[in-house]
């Protein structure tokens, strides 16, 4: 008699095992059978037979059909009383739930806008090996895991237990998947930048490896249409070992052409303030073939503010090395034994020092550690002076003059440390925040140069010479950025320049005012050309192709300048004539202010957006005080150039998905620990 003609029996008791979702229990004479609903195979269904043989059959049967067997595995583990299971919540039935009801699947989304075929239902969907492999590659990119992790036995055991259907592939296959993700994301970023109506700023960073290989990192900075500061790594180029400095301009120009942003470039920021001017000149010449640079290029060449602070801090520490060597010897002596440390603590109490700081030695790779050492040692100055009288074995004695030098240098290092922290720790550092800090450094250096102490004044002269090189290149763009801060406008320039330049301040202030007006007029012409339809499609920028470089471009400028009537007040005049915005607290959001006031200053807001997006410093929290530059970790240094660029760039582009969980610098994961 065929099984299918037998009637299903009433079960004397509730069938609680999940396997009964896949079997029908029937009786033939006095024997019970369990019939698989997938393949109609007939197995023993007696209550004495248990369900292990049914589960084993299902594992084979469902795998052939590419069904997810995670629920069966979870149920098996739960019987063994394993404390943790991914699917506990999915296999527990409520009191009134029938055994033949399927559990509503939990939905997992791959990205913010998944396709219909990208939605996965746990426990009820077909398994997709290709999709899982891309998920794994994506995880490796996002968290900087090594590609070889797929060949680690621990990872393979974990994956096999989690999803037996997953076929572990070699690292070479995962590498190809990572490059595939990189190429797709690059298309998205490229489209995003090309559709952007404003200008783009480019930061240039030099990296090295433990094996002394050199890399060039190019990062685009801009304020988007929603007035959010954006930062995208465009390239991480491996430089040929035979390259020379003058070849850097070729690498940069090639990147500009690759991303088609030559015509959109507003400024370039070099992380080394001593970068050869010829490199910048070659890039300027290449761009000038397409379009004129704003302000004759005075705003184009920007050097990192954090780097110049790093340089002058090193000058100060180097000049003080004889004194710092004595301080190191003093600290080592105090810490040489518990007896000496105890004696020193007693002396400190005798002279009334209740030190809150601990005596520590500085590091050879972080210049801010020298400031920390000096600060602590100076707090215990009285104890060290008494120690030399009470302990003849203490020989690292400082004179009163040396203590004075240490105090002065410490104060200046503290200023540099505070400003560097301000530059590197701010989440969205807009260009307006740098002017006042740099001016303060300028004033302090001028004061130190006037010191009656020849030692201190000579140090100051050396520091100021490097600072002046930076100031010559960057003072105008710093000041322009300050002017478009509604809390300051030209008033902040007037305040600081009167202290810096004295009797010649008015001439210097006029240079800034003229620079702002010249830049604004260029944007006004751009706006006029957009209105006349001579700009790039969908862009607020003037057309820069050869077709648009007609002989009447000068007439456009003449028409704009001569069409201004007394009744027509420009955005800039209106902005400067109105009172400054109250400076209350430190939570002022300048990007939001300009977003709100765009209707009132339509042309000036275009200019403000591009200027505010200029990176005035390339310092990251982990490298702001480094004495050795940026060093790539050994793992990423060992990769092929294409794979290295793919992993570093793709991680930066995918990073937006992790911002809510772990906001950080994009390149933080690649810096070698010192």
TrEMBL record:
**What is one term from the GO cellular component aspect held by the record?**
nucleus
One Pfam match: Dimer_Tnp_hAT
- Superkingdom field: Eukaryota
Q: Which GO terms describe its biological process?
A: post-embryonic development
What are the entry keywords? DNA-binding, Metal-binding, Nucleus, Transcription, Transcription regulation, Zinc, Zinc-finger
Query: Where mainly found?
Result: nucleus
Which InterPro entries does the record cross-reference, listed alphabetically?
hAT-like_transposase_RNase-H, HATC_C_dom, RNaseH-like_sf, Znf_BED, ZnF_BED_domain_contain, Znf_C2H2_sf
Q: Where in or outside the cell is it found?
A: Nucleus
User: Which SMART domains has this protein been placed in?
Assistant: ZnF_BED
* Residue intervals of the BED-type domain: 14-69
Q: Does the keyword Transcription apply?
A: yes
Which residues, by range, are in coiled-coil regions? none
Molecular function (GO) terms for this protein are: DNA binding; protein dimerization activity; zinc ion binding
Q: How does it assemble?
A: Homodimer.
Return the protein name: BED-type domain-containing protein
Species, as recorded: Rhizophora mucronata (Asiatic mangrove)
């Amino acid at each position: 008699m065929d099984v299918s003609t037998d009637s299903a029996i009433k079960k004397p008791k509730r069938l609680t095992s999940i396997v009964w979702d896949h079997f029908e229990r029937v009786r033939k004479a006095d024997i019970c059978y369990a019939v698989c609903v997938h393949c109609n195979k007939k197995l023993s269904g007696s209550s004495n037979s248990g369900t292990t043989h049914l589960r084993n059959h299902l594992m084979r049967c469902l795998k052939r059909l590419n069904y997810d067997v995670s629920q069966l595995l979870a149920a098996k583990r739960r019987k063994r009383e394993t404390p943790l299971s991914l699917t506990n919540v999915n296999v527990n039935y409520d009191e009134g739930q029938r055994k033949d009801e399927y559990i509503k699947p939990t939905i997992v989304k791959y990205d913010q806008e998944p396709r219909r075929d990208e939605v996965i239902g746990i426990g009820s969907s077909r398994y997709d090996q290709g999709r899982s492999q891309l998920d794994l590659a994506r995880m490796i990119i996002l968290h900087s895991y090594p590609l070889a992790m797929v060949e680690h036995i621990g990872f393979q055991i974990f994956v096999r237990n989690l999803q037996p259907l997953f076929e572990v592939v070699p690292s070479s296959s995962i590498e190809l998947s990572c490059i595939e993700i990189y190429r797709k994301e690059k298309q998205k970023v490229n489209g995003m930048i090309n559709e952007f109506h404003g200008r783009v700023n480019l930061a240039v960073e030099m990296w090295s490896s433990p094996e002394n290989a050199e890399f060039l990192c190019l990062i685009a900075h801009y304020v988007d249409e929603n007035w959010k500061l954006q930062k995208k790594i465009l390239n991480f180029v491996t430089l040929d070992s035979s390259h020379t400095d003058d070849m850097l301009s070729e690498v940069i120009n090639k990147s500009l052409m690759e991303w088609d942003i030559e015509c959109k470039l507003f400024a370039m920021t070099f992380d080394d303030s001593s970068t050869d001017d010829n490199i910048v000149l070659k890039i300027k010449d290449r761009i000038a073939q397409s379009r004129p640079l704003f302000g004759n290029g005075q705003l184009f060449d920007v050097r990192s503010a954090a780097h110049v602070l790093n340089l002058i801090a090193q000058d100060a520490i180097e000049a003080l090395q004889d004194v710092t060597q004595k301080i190191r010897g003093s600290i080592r002596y105090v810490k040489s034994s518990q007896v000496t440390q105890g004696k020193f603590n007693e002396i400190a109490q005798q002279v009334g020092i209740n030190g809150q700081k601990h005596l520590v030695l500085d590091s050879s790779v972080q210049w801010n550690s020298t400031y920390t050492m000096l600060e602590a040692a100076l707090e215990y100055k009285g104890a060290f002076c008494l120690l030399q009288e009470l302990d003849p074995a203490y020989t690292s004695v400082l004179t009163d003059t040396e203590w004075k030098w240490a105090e002065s240098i410490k104060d200046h290092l503290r200023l540099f440390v505070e400003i560097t922290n301000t530059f590197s720790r701010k989440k969205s550092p807009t260009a307006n925040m740098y002017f006042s800090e740099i001016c303060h450094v300028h004033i302090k250096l001028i004061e130190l140069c006037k010191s009656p102490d020849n030692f201190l004044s000579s140090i100051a002269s050396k520091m100021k010479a490097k600072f002046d090189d930076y100031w010559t290149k960057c003072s105008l763009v710093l000041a322009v950025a300050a002017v478009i801060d509604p809390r300051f406008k030209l008033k902040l320039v007037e305040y600081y320049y009167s202290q810096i330049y004295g009797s010649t301040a008015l001439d210097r202030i006029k240079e800034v005012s003229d620079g702002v007006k010249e830049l604004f007029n260029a944007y006004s012409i751009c706006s006029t050309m957009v209105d006349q339809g001579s700009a790039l499609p969908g862009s607020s920028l003037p057309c820069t192709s050869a077709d648009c470089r007609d002989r009447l471009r000068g007439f456009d400028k003449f028409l704009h300048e001569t069409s201004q009537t007394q009744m027509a007040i420009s955005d800039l005049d209106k902005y400067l004539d109105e009172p400054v915005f109250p400076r209350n607290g430190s939570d002022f959001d300048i990007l939001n202010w300009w977003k709100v006031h765009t209707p009132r200053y339509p042309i000036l807001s275009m200019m403000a957006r591009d200027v505010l997006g200029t990176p005035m410093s390339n310092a990251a929290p982990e490298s702001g005080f480094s004495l050795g530059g940026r060093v790539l970790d050994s793992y990423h240094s060992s990769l092929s150039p294409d794979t290295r660029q793919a992993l570093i760039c793709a991680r930066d582009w995918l990073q937006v998905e992790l911002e809510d969980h772990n906001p950080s610098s994009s390149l933080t994961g690649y810096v070698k620990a010192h």
